[in-house]
Amino acid sequence: MPLGDRIRLLAALDEMGSLTVAEALSAFREGRPMGCLAALILGGFLEVELDDALIGPETVVRRIRD
């Protein structure tokens, strides 16, 4: 995953607190948006709420803090 995309998205989440999947995908400019977002989720950088529904455009994305 391109470093610029990761930094851009994490900075946006630091500023906003959370984004929808649709908003988060717009932060990617160098890599494949959905693949990069999935890599950040699986890598433990981001979390999404999956209890109520499958991932969709309105699903909330948050940064995981250690």
SSE order: HEHHEE
Task: Report the total helices.
Answer: 3
The total beta strand count reads 3
Strand content: 15-25%
What's the assembly state of these chains?
single chain
**Low-pLDDT runs:** none
The largest beta-sheet arranges its strands as 1-3-2
Report the C-alpha radius of gyration, rounded: 11 Å
Task: Describe the protein.
- The structure is a single chain.
- This protein has 66 residues and is α+β, with helices and mostly antiparallel strands.
- Helices cover 44% and strands 15% of the residues.
- The chain contains three helices and three strands.
- Strands 1-3-2 form a three-stranded antiparallel sheet.
- It is globular, with a radius of gyration of 11 Å.
Provide a short characterization of the protein structure.
This protein is α+β, with helices and mostly antiparallel strands and 66 residues long. 44% of the residues lie in helices and 15% in strands.
Which helices and strands appear, and what pairs or packs with what?
Elements: H1 3-16, E1 18-20, H2 21-25, H3 33-42, E2 46-48, E3 60-63
Antiparallel strand pairs: 1-3, 2-3
